[in-house]
Specification:
The protein is an alpha/beta fold. It folds into 3 domains: 71 residues, Allophycocyanin linker chain (domain) (Dna Ligase, domain 1, 2-Layer Sandwich); 116 residues, Elongation Factor Tu (Ef-tu), domain 3 (Beta Barrel); 152 residues, Rossmann fold. The chain is built from 9 helices and 17 strands. The strands form 4 sheets. Strands 8-7-12-5-6-9 form a 6-stranded antiparallel β-sheet. A 5-stranded parallel β-sheet has the order 15-14-13-16-17, sandwiched between helices. The protein has a 4-stranded mixed β-sheet with strand order 1-3-2-4, covered by helices on one side. Helix 5 links the parallel strand 14 and strand 15. Helix 6 runs parallel beside helix 8 and helix 7 crosses helix 8. It is globular. 41% of the residues are buried.
Length: 405
């Protein structure tokens, strides 16, 4: 959504305009002033004069937003074409000449025994950090942390596919406490140690460069989580979410498409399905279906949880399939970078045949840029049988799960 209200007046420098594309705005006191509704997850375009760029970055941070790109404003209401000048690379997406509003996953009908909002922002759970480990290997891009928290002292229960909120320590530039940020849970309901005492997150450090000053800007909450040490206390809220829950059927087909830290919920699925310790405590759920993970990452060292994923595939070759799209190392059929949508296109007929089965659930998690390519691939595959993909997709909304940002 394009919002010219932040453009401000002209000054000697202020008449140089830039368009901020931001994501993950949430309704709060700040967004209530913007004059239009803000969805829980959405894409908003804001025109900003050069003279107010730092001020606007601070304002967006207060609203819980993340800046996707900053581009010169060409006077037409959209950003000028070309690579974003922010220095932030949007991994695993095709060049974004135009960006549609972000997808907000629709919640399915309420189910029994789904824990929701056990802890709220005004009364969060105080958890202690157990460990904070780097997931990106040497030579990889950026930093991603696997952070494990102790929840043995409270009543925080959760299911695979849910999210929790984190409230960073400190205050914003107005002296008010920081707003919470939501993160997909990266551990099964029993925790990494299968003792019902922990919860884990997979968090990428957000950083980008200011287009004019070259200053490196860091995300508030991701920086906070990147630096927490064992023993530190962290405020947790939630859990929330019903969109990404696994079906109860142990014979189901589970197709998972992820980019980057979108792997988090799929780690919980795969661990619940295949890890020996998990299977030993899940007497009512012994998975015997088919699970296929298609994972988009920029380099091999960026394959999060690589050893564990490949161990599962090797142990259960008939039940688990792993397909990578490594953009910086592999090429697509046209000779360009290999993104997840290209892998989906390669296997579109096979995926389509699975999707047609009533026991198949498809999950998409990660950067929104992959959605159009996935839809294009499925449109082509379904079209071979005279089926309109978009209509069919609507008919299987209970089996097609999307959480993108």
């Amino acid at each position: 959504m394009y919002n010219p209200s932040a453009a401000g007046g002209n000054t000697a420098f202020g008449n140089r305009l830039f368009v901020y594309e931001v994501k993950a705005l949430r309704q709060n006191d700040e967004t209530d002033k913007m004059g239009y509704p803000i969805r829980k997850s959405g894409s908003v375009f804001i025109t900003v004069p050069y003279s107010r760029m730092n001020q606007e970055m601070q304002r967006l941070t207060r609203m819980g937003a993340q800046i996707v790109s900053i581009r010169p404003y060409d006077g037409s209401g959209v950003a000028a074409s070309g690579k974003a000048s922010s220095g932030l690379e949007i991994q695993q997406t095709q060049p974004a000449e135009a960006t549609k509003p972000m997808t907000q996953a629709k919640e399915k009908s309420a189910k029994a025994d789904i824990p929701v909002n056990i802890y709220r922002p005004n009364s969060p759970y105080l958890s202690k950090v157990i460990s904070n480990d780097e997931l990106v290997g040497e030579g990889g891009i950026g930093t991603v942390r696997h952070i494990k928290f102790d929840i043995s002292g409270g009543d925080l229960r959760y299911l695979e596919g849910q999210s929790i909120g984190i409230i960073p320590d400190g205050t914003d530039d107005k002296g008010k406490p920081h707003k919470l940020r939501l993160y997909s849970i990266g551990s099964t309901r029993h925790g990494d140690d299968v003792d019902d005492k922990t919860i884990s997150l997979c968090v990428r450090q957000l950083e980008y460069k200011h287009p004019e000053t070259g200053e490196t800007i860091y995300g508030v909450c991701s920086t906070y989580l990147n630096k927490v040490q064992p023993g530190d206390e962290v405020k947790i809220t939630g859990p929330v979410g019903k969109e990404m829950l696994l079906p109860d059927d142990p014979e189901a087909n589970i197709i998972m498409m992820a980019t980057g830290t979108g792997i988090a919920p799929f780690r919980t699925y795969l661990w619940r399905m295949f890890k020996d310790a998990e299977r030993s405590v899940n007497s009512d759920y012994q998975f015997n279906g088919f699970a296929w993970l298609i994972f988009g990452i920029p380099t091999t060292p960026n394959i999060l949880y690589k050893e564990e994923l490949e161990e599962i595939q090797a142990k259960y070759p008939n039940n688990c399939r792993l397909t990578y799209a490594i953009s910086r190392e592999q090429s697509n059929a046209e000779g360009g970078r290999m993104y997840i949508q290209h892998r989906v296109a390669e296997h579109a007929d096979e995926i389509w045949n699975l999707v047609k089965q009533e026991k198949t659930h498809t999950y998409i998690c990660g950067l929104k840029g992959m959605e159009d390519g996935i839809d294009a691939a499925m449109t082509a595959a379904a079209g071979k049988e005279g089926v309109n993909w978009k209509e069919y997709q609507r008919s299987i909304k209970e089996r097609w799960h999307v959480e993108t940002y």
